[in-house]
Amino acid sequence: MSSSVVAYTFRHIPPLIHRSLPSLFCRHPPCTVLFKSSSSSSYCGLLNPCYFTGNSLFRRMERFWAGGSVNKNKGMVEHLQRYGIIQSKKVAEVMEAVDRALFVPDGSPAYEDSPMQIGFNATISAPHMHATCLQLLEKNLQPGMHALDVGSGTGYLTACFALMVGPQGRAIGVEHIPELVAMAIKNVEKSTAAQLLKDGSLALNVGDGREGWPEFAPYDAIHVGAAAPEIPKPLIEQLKPGGRLVIPVGNIFQELKVVDKNEDGSVTVRTETSVRYVPLTSREAQLRGY
Ligand code: SAH
Q1: SS3 for 100?
Q2: Ligand 1 contacts CB of residue 211 (under 6 A)
Q3: In angstroms, rounded to a whole number, what is the distance separating the alpha carbons of residues 287 and 106?
Q4: Which of 125, 152, 201, 274 is catalytic?
Q5: How far is the CA of 104 from the centre of ligand 1 (A)?
Q6: 122 lines ligand 1 (CB under 6 A)
Q7: d(CA 118, ligand 1 centre) in Å
Q8: Is 154 left (phi over 0), alpha (psi -120 to 50) or beta?
Q9: Contact assessment for residue 127 and residue 149, using Cβ atoms and an 8 Å cutoff
Q10: Considering only CA atoms, which of 153, 105, 97, 147 is closest in space to residue 129?
Q11: Relative to the CA of 140, which of 28, 150, 221, 242 has its CA 20 to 30 Å away?
Q12: What is the position in ligand 1's atom list of the atom closest to the CA of 174?
């Protein structure tokens, strides 16, 4: 497991830095923050505008979590509901049904609102990012619909998608590190989505997600769990009219984009929030640390 990429959230900022630097840079909601330990790296938390977020909601959440009282998946979901990140019953039910502890490395604080290293310079996103993406895609994850999860990593979000689209739908994960796909399959086999994997409505594949997964296109929902320098064309092409793509775009400064394909085939793009994800890149670049 590589140790070069470390995932941090706001509360990990050393208090001195936290106090001495203004929180002017970002007024956005909570975001996934990555921090690379090498000082020569571009993954420096100090360059991230959201590292010093002044978002008061997030601060209230941070205080709550710091109390260490969240030790159950249900408790994690309730807090995300209380702070308005989970807004719908369906997303709450699905996140309650898929126990996050099955998807994080052994011994990790599974219910903390923090991204965590999973090896191979990858992370599992923080619960608030998973919840945000599920909310943004909810209408496109109705029973029977097709969903694609690019950069499926641990398989957590693919499992959530599978429960939402049900046995008549399709939830397809694409991940370019074979070892992570093998791990994700084991994770899902222990989860409430196991039967869907067995029956084939949930599948986890090895591949370059920048090419999408044409076999089950077009998709009602596409999620990308890694930041692309620009929106990959194949993903737009594989989106159904009426479909939605949620994708982080950018390098050091990244934004979560919501791309809607209209019924006439035209595309509307809006920015949801600032975020920090690992890059959507080649396997080689990722394994050598980008
Ligand atoms: N959403 C997942 C993982 C997020 S980390 C989770 O929360 O568990 C981003 C993932 O994207 C990593 O697992 C990384 O290996 C993968 N990735 C990066 N570039 C990729 C590419 N070109 N094709 C497929 N997967 C990619």
Answers
A1: helix
A2: no
A3: 22
A4: 125
A5: 15
A6: yes
A7: 11
A8: alpha
A9: no
A10: 153
A11: 28
A12: 24
Tokens of 45: 């938390």
CA angle 170, 173, 175 (to 5 degrees): 165
Residues 116, 123 contacting (CB under 8 angstroms): yes
Structure confidence by residue, pLDDT tens digits, 14-61: 333 332 232 222 323 333 333 322 222 222 222 333 332 223 344 445
Tokens (6 digits) for 251: 């390098």
Please work out whether the CB of residue 124 comes within 6 Å of at least one atom of ligand 1. yes
The identity of residue 144, as a single letter, is G
Residue 174 near residue 224, CB atoms below 8 Å = no
- The CA-CA-CA angle for residues 58, 98, 206, to 5°, reads 100
pTM, rounded to two decimals: 0.81
Whole-angstrom distance, CA of residue 162 vs CA of residue 284: 29
Closest ligand 1 atom to the C-alpha of 208? 23
Q: What is the pLDDT of residues 200-224, one digit of tens each?
A: 999 999 999 999 999 999 999 999 9
pLDDT at 2: 37
How many whole angstroms separate alpha carbon 193 and alpha carbon 203?
A: 11
- What is the DSSP code (8-state) at residue 105? P
125 catalytic, yes or no?
A: yes
- Could you list the beta-strand ranges (E) of the chain: 5-8, 33-36, 116-119, 122-124, 146-150, 170-175, 202-206, 219-224, 239-250, 254-261, 267-275
**Block residue for tokens 């290293």:** 117
Question: pLDDT tens digits, residue range 127-138?
Answer: 999 999 999 999
- Supply 38's token pair: 């090498």
